[in-house]
Specification:
By secondary structure, the protein is α/β, with parallel strands linked by helices. The protein is built from ten helices and eleven strands. The two termini are 22 Å apart. The structure holds methionine.
Amino acid sequence: MKSLPLLPTSLVGSYAQPDWLIDRARLAGRFPPRVRARELWRIPPERLAQAQDDATELAIRAQERAGLDIITDGEIRRESYSNHFATALDGIDLDNPGTALDRSGHPNPVPRITGPIRRPRPIEVGDLRFLREHTDHLIKMTVPGPFTMSQQAQNDHYPDAEAAAMDYAAAVNAEIRDLFAAGADIVQIDEPYMQARPEPARAYGLAALNAALDGVVGTTAVHICFGYAAIIHERPEAYSFLPELAGCPVEQVSIETAQSGLDLGVLSDLKDKTVILGVIDLSTPDVEPVELVAERVRRAFDRIPPDRIVIATDCGMKYLPRESAEGKMRAMAGAARLLRGEFGPTM
Ligand code: MET
């Protein structure tokens, strides 16, 4: 197993899916699906699993070739970062979906909760094993967070959304334990709705996140963002929910700073965390020069020591053209090499 250098590089999770695998134009033209969207796959059902495996191997090789240090499965098998997990749970009706507003206020068909939320079996462990078998780098797996899933569902069963979030948390907790047992090095919980809905996030989302992490042994991360740039265009100047994570038993916090030009003063609130620092802007396919990426990383050094920074993308690369995704990964790896050279061999 490879060990990590200073300023390791990583994706937030998703990589560009191949055009031959999924209808990317339709994928980008609609909001990320909350229920299944099997019609998006271009490969017939009986060959889909093999095609997804092959595309996952391409995503792994692309990350390795670009020089990334921590490798994900690219979330290639998912229609969206959350629906793959959320729709595999018991207690929901997918044939008669409900409706929920997404972070931009757009109504979406979502799982309708009609009974207790339970995880019937491991959901991503097979994907994790495939990743483990196909790279000797450190590997990271992503799971949707309990708060985010509770916001992407219609609750027709529990007395309130908080009760639903706590059962989602139990399902995520069981999954995380299984992922570590199967060989994950890092497990990241995606909670983009904490930024979108800070009040309920404070009221019960944080408790649900803590419950999802309860008793977990292994390196965990949480990703908070302003939404996929391809879908949510505007960036606020600051996070509405972030210092709250200081007390959460997660080791790494993933934030976006490139597109938003985020004021990095917020990093002072996360003194004990490793920061997965988003320094790649996903609102444009243009590939940033290495020096610009390095400068975005240097901006953080006043607030956080280099040995607690992972160089990353702002969010997932799902909606980027492949050439652009490849170039941006090379820019990240190039910036890491440049900065490591500046610190010299003693750092
Ligand atoms: N892990 C997810 C991705 O990389 C995070 C999505 S948050 C909107 O696409």
